[in-house]
From TrEMBL:
<dbReference type="InterPro" id="IPR036390">
    <property type="entry name" value="WH_DNA-bd_sf"/>
</dbReference>
<dbReference type="InterPro" id="IPR001845">
    <property type="entry name" value="HTH_ArsR_DNA-bd_dom"/>
</dbReference>
<feature type="domain" description="HTH arsR-type">
    <location>
        <begin position="2"/>
        <end position="26"/>
    </location>
</feature>
<dbReference type="GO" id="GO:0003700">
    <property type="term" value="F:DNA-binding transcription factor activity"/>
</dbReference>
<dbReference type="InterPro" id="IPR036388">
    <property type="entry name" value="WH-like_DNA-bd_sf"/>
</dbReference>
<dbReference type="Pfam" id="PF01022">
    <property type="entry name" value="HTH_5"/>
</dbReference>
<protein>
    <submittedName>
        <fullName>Arsenical resistance operon repressor</fullName>
    </submittedName>
</protein>
<dbReference type="InterPro" id="IPR011991">
    <property type="entry name" value="ArsR-like_HTH"/>
</dbReference>
Length: 55
């Protein structure tokens, strides 16, 4: 992701950490890499909550 996004590696790492702490993504560690995927049930719940707030 670092190669694809115009942000520093440390910034990306911090954002991914926050998304993981919120339960929106999951990370699987296979040194030296971490593979991330969306936690679909939590992502859908977050979308519904945000849509209700923004109505």
């Amino acid at each position: 992701m670092v190669e694809e996004l115009p942000i520093a590696k440390s910034t990306l790492s911090q954002h991914l950490k926050e998304l993981k702490n919120a339960g929106l993504i999951q990370g699987n560690i296979t040194p030296p890499t971490i593979k991330y995927c969306i936690n679909h049930p939590n992502w859908e719940l977050a979308k519904k909550l945000l849509n209700n707030i923004l109505k």
